[in-house]
Each structure stands twice: as structure tokens, then as C-alpha cells.
């Protein structure tokens, strides 16, 4: 699906206040550090007792709205939140977030669930809404407080975070500028999107289960690598580009190892991938992971940079996007605080005793 003159007009990110080192997790499990080193994740965020997906989604969206120019927040006509840790089984997270943000009552709204690609699916839906001219702006959020059974390999990576993107339509596709000051000013055009899905049960959680289950190594080749490769190759063919045409690539980050391997398989370099690998410091934030990685790239990308992003969701599927940054991004970014790297630098490190107390208090 190729899009025209639609894209990101604001974005924001949110992390919990604390993290734990992977060495502390290994110590708490009574295991050596071999697995930790193979995953390439040095620390992960840990949500507080009062932090859930709604809390983090609201915080990220509030930052995005504070950066929004050319459109009033009352013009945001859609809100989609992707997560696999919505606090309620029946009751939308979105209605709570909507009230906290002061958005209009006249709103298309739904919670989404497709494992780790629910956030990118929200991005795709909001792009389509604005592309169709149904509304001036739409808000897509990926937010999670991921669960992992103590002692499981997932404990090294299951983390918490959120990213919010506001999509709009308008502006000059070449420069990102608009002639009408009331129109959105696009920071990054979404040029195309492509999705794939198959029934591949690599990761799941049944109703009332405290923790997810997974098929271990099965989550790699027939799941992550197959779907990310399929979606990426399809979108490259659709837009007539190859890996060398991009400045950056972003692949879903269940760890640092998987995106490094798939980037190499698809012809992308370490330099193209490196800016997106915030997973090393924050862990796998599930539905927020690809969006946080994209935000990390946008926080430093120059004007005219081409970005390939491909998310992955267990079960299984992938969403691929081609984006191009504008001069407006560079101009607006000069006045921003709370860039993602600033938020990462502010994380406080829990010692092993405190980590175990926090983990046991809310089942993480």
C-alpha cells in the first residue's frame, strides 16, 4: 500500500523510572551470563507498582501532543492503542487515555492486540484514516508492561515502555512544509506500508494465565525471520528500492541478536541498524518496541533520510514501512526536551534485592 502526503506530525516516548541490569537478573536466577551476552541486552526497564500500559501510553501521548503544531488536539479524530498488557480484559484502555489527554468525545477508538506488532498496526490504521481524509489527525500508541515468568529466558528482556505517534495529512512531500499554517507539518512521510500474517503459534498466553508461553527456538526461523523477511522484501519490491537506498533500518527487537541477523540477511549494514538498537538498554517493550526504535532514529535523523521499519508480532505477522524525514523534523527537534536517549540516561538502576521485591509485587 503506497501512501501519499501523509505522515508523522508529532511523536513522544515514555519509560518507567527504573531499570535492572541483566547481570542482576542472571544472579537472581542463579545462572551464568552466557544467555545474557548472546541476547545483547544489558539492562531492561522495570515498571513501578503504579505503572501499567495506560499510564505509559498517557505519558507518551502527552509528550507527543505537547510537540504538535498546526493542529489542535481536539482535531485528533482517532485513537488506537496496541498492547498485549491492557489492564482490563473487558474495558478499553483508550477511553481512560482519551480522558486523561482531554481529547474530543467524537473519536474513533479501539484497543488492538497482535502481540508485539499491535503498536505498528495502530500506526498503519491511523495513517490510513488520515490518508482517506476522514480527520486532520489520528493518534497511534504502542504500550506494554511485559510479563515474564521468573527464571524464564524472557525475564532478561521483558520490559515496559510506550511510544505515541500522531499522524496527519498535508504539506509538500518533498520538503514537509505547508502553505497553510493550519495544516499539519509533516516530520516524516510514510511512503508505503505492507503487512503479512500467518497462523504460526510461536508465543501465546491463555486466559487467566499469569505468564506467556513460547516455543523457544521455534520463535526464530519459522516465526520472526520468516515474517520480517517476507514483509521487508515485499515492500522493497513495491517501492522499487534496495537496502543501500536507506539511511536507517529498524527491525523489531525481541533482543539485539535477532535484528542484527535479519538486517545482515536483507543486505543492511551495522551502521544503518545501530541507531535503532535501544533494546540494549531498555529491553523488549513488546508493542512499543518498534515504535521506540523508530523514535530513537527520528531523534537524530537529518532531513531527507529514508528509513525502513519492520515490526513483528507473534502468532504471527509483520508490518513494514518506508518513511522519509523532512526539514520540519530537524527544525522542530531543536526545541525539544525529553528525547528518548535523555529518558534512558535518567533511568535509575535497581539492585538485585529491590528488583526481586518489585518483580514479586506485581508478577513481573
What does this structure look like?
This protein is an alpha/beta fold. Helices cover 34% and strands 24% of the residues. The chain is built from 13 helices and 14 strands. The strands form three sheets. Strands 5-4-6-7-1-8-13-12-11 form a nine-stranded mixed sheet, sandwiched between helices. Strands 3-2-14 form a three-stranded mixed sheet. The termini are far apart.
Unreliable stretches (pLDDT < 50, length at least 5) are 172-179
Order of helices and strands: EEHHEHEHEHEEEEEHEHHHHEEHHEH
Instruction: Report how far the terminal alpha carbons are from each other.
Output: 38 Å
> How much strand?
15-25%
Q: Quick one: overall form?
A: globular
CATH topology-level fold name:
Peroxisomal Thiolase, Chain A, domain 1
CATH superfamily: Thiolase/Chalcone synthase
The CATH class, by name, is Alpha Beta
Q: Sketch the major β-sheet.
A: 9 strands, mixed
| Radius of gyration computed on alpha carbons | 19 Å
Helix segment tally: 13
Enumerate the strands of the largest sheet in spatial order, edge to edge or round the barrel: 5-4-6-7-1-8-13-12-11
Tell me which CATH architecture applies here. 3-Layer(aba) Sandwich
Indicate how many domains the architecture comprises.
1
Amino acid at each position: 500500500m503506497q501512501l501519499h502526503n501523509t505522515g508523522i506530525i508529532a511523536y513522544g516516548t515514555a519509560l518507567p523510572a527504573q531499570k535492572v541490569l541483566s547481570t542482576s537478573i542472571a544472579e537472581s536466577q542463579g545462572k551464568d551470563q552466557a544467555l545474557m551476552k548472546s541476547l545483547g541486552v544489558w539492562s531492561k526497564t522495570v515498571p513501578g507498582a503504579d505503572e501499567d500500559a495506560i499510564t505509559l501510553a498517557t505519558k507518551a501521548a502527552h509528550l507527543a501532543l505537547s510537540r504538535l503544531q498546526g493542529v489542535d488536539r481536539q482535531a485528533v479524530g482517532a485513537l488506537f492503542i496496541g498492547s498485549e498488557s491492557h489492564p482490563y480484559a473487558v474495558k478499553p484502555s483508550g477511553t481512560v487515555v482519551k480522558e486523561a489527554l482531554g481529547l474530543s468525545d467524537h473519536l474513533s477508538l479501539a484497543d488492538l492486540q497482535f502481540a508485539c506488532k499491535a503498536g505498528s498496526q495502530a500506526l498503519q490504521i491511523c495513517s490510513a484514516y488520515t490518508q482517506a481524509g476522514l480527520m486532520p489527525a489520528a493518534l497511534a500508541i504502542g504500550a506494554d508492561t511485559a510479563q515474564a515468568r521468573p527464571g524464564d529466558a524472557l525475564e532478561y528482556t521483558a520490559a515496559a515502555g510506550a511510544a505515541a505517534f500522531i499522524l496527519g495529512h498535508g504539506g509538500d512531500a518533498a520538503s514537509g512544509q505547508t502553505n497553510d499554517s493550519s495544516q499539519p507539518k509533516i516530520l516524516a512521510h510514510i511512503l508505503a506500508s505492507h503487512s503479512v500474517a500467518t497462523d504460526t503459534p510461536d508465543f501465546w498466553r491463555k486466559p487467566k494465565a499469569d505468564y506467556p508461553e513460547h516455543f523457544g527456538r521455534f520463535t526464530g526461523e519459522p516465526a520472526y525471520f520468516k515474517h520480517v523477511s517476507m514483509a521487508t522484501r515485499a515492500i522493497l519490491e513495491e517501492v522499487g528500492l534496495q537496502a543501500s537506498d536507506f539511511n536507517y533500518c529498524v527491525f523489531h527487537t525481541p533482543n539485539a541478536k535477532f535484528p542484527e541477523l535479519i538486517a545482515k540477511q536483507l543486505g543492511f549494514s551495522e551502521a544503518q541498524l545501530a541507531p535503532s538498537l535501544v533494546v540494549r538498554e531498555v529491553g523488549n517493550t513488546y508493542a512499543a518496541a518498534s515504535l521506540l526504535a523508530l523514535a530513537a532514529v527520528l531523534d537524530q535523523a537529518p532531513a531527507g533520510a529514508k528509513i525502513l521499519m519492520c515490526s513483528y508480532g507473534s502468532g504471527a505477522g509483520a508490518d513494514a514501512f518506508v518513511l522519509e524525514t523532512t526539514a520540519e523534523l530537524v527544525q522542530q527537534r531543536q526545541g525539544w526536551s525529553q528525547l528518548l536517549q535523555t529518558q534512558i540516561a535518567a533511568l535509575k538502576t535497581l539492585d538485585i534485592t529491590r528488583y526481586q521485591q518489585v518483580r514479586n509485587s506485581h508478577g513481573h
